[in-house]
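Suppose you are handed only these lines of text.
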Amino acid sequence: IPESPLGSTNATIPVIGFGTASWPLGGSETMKQSIVQAIELGYRHFDTAAVYQSEHCLGEAIAQALHLGLIKSRKDLFITSKLWCSDAHANRVLPAVQNTLRRLGLDYLDLYLIHWPVSLKSAGYDVTYSKEDLVAMDFKSVWAAMEECQRLGLSRNIGVSNFSCKKLEQLLLTSKIPPAVNQVEMSPLWQQAKLREFCHRNAIHITAYSPLGARGTVWGTNQVLDCAVLKEIAEAKGKTVAQVCLRWTYEQGVSLLVKSFNKERMKENIGIFDWKLSHEDCQKIEQIPQERACSGREFISEDGPFTSFEELWDGEI
Ligand code: A2P
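From them, the structure of the protein bound to adenosine-2'-5'-diphosphate can be written out as follows.
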């Protein structure tokens, strides 16, 4: 799996990462064995978050892979985790990253991200929080605490997730270390042209999540894998629709996260480096009507801080 430069840093990021956001599989033995299998197949980048409940099992899988000799050292891997909204307060960031490292059994992360541009008053990682607990995030002080995590060596790189151009602009106004990454939804059905252009200009690397449309989740959709344009291209190329999605995403210069708990599909999803899409294929894909799968509706509340999708995504909807 090739690597891509990470923002304006000297670091690189493997262009395909393995996702571990899964309900109800988060933290299960099945997930742990899938991660070990993924390492065996050549995946080196793993994406977790405090709220996924998968940090502990990712840590166990890494220990097992080291024990089995599938990798030589921790340094062979690229590990991303995320600060949950309940920890997105200046004084809770350091304890949060320390707890994440403890659950992973690691002494540093490669990348630590602010999960969403919003804070929660309540503590803990229960996703069924009360909407009254949603509060505006103080970007300046939370980001300063993220910078401190990097200075202390707890994470090699820091970044954000689910940030619009406008929110990135706001963060850049006061940041000393610019975010290396913005991890956002991106697929042929949600191409993010405007955000990609903004991030490119500001040397912020994009990681695409849900490149297959997050089929099988509560927010996800089958529309990506069922898309007629993609099916036609896949058939003509002798590839699967999933491979066409992943190849298109990779060709846009971003890294991507994909997850499958099925060994054949895990192999299929990394089989995208010895062929490419034609100019005509890409033109057809660019014309696919756009629709976001992950709307973030759980962050919209009558009492704010975001009272509409418009406010959450700043019109990038
Ligand atoms: P499975 O674990 O049964 O393979 P996303 O990465 O967009 O969130 O999508 C993940 C979903 O897509 C999972 O439900 C996964 O199911 C499925 N999936 C992953 N790879 C493929 C593939 N190559 N073909 C079809 N479905 C896939």
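What can we learn from it? Residues 3-313 form a domain with the TIM Barrel fold (CATH 3.20.20.100). The mean pLDDT is 95.
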